[in-house]
Design goal:
Blueprint (H helix, E strand, L loop, with lengths): L1 H5 L3 H6 L2 H43 L4 H44 L1
Helix pairs in contact: 3-4
Amino acid sequence: MHLCVFRAPMSFFDSTPSGRILNRASTDQSAVDTDIPYQIGSFAFSLIQLLGIIIVMSQVAWQVFIVFVPVIAISIWYQRYYLPSARELSRLCGVCKAPIIQHFAETIS
């Protein structure tokens, strides 16, 4: 993201408030520092747990796989429905926070 901001034309800085740029940079850095390590650990734990459940399920009650496949298909459909909505909501939160961060940055400088 920094490379794109550094190479942006001056018209980008004229049309985009500095608070929005600062908000995006601070949010991205916060996500890298705090959220990603926990998400990777949680993902690894969930993946190991899922594989263990599938192995046990295939040995004990293989008939459950008949229900398992449609549930996976429905879950994928819900995920595809949710992701665009979550992105739009995240964008709206950033737009709402931008004036506050811009005011804070101007106050400090």
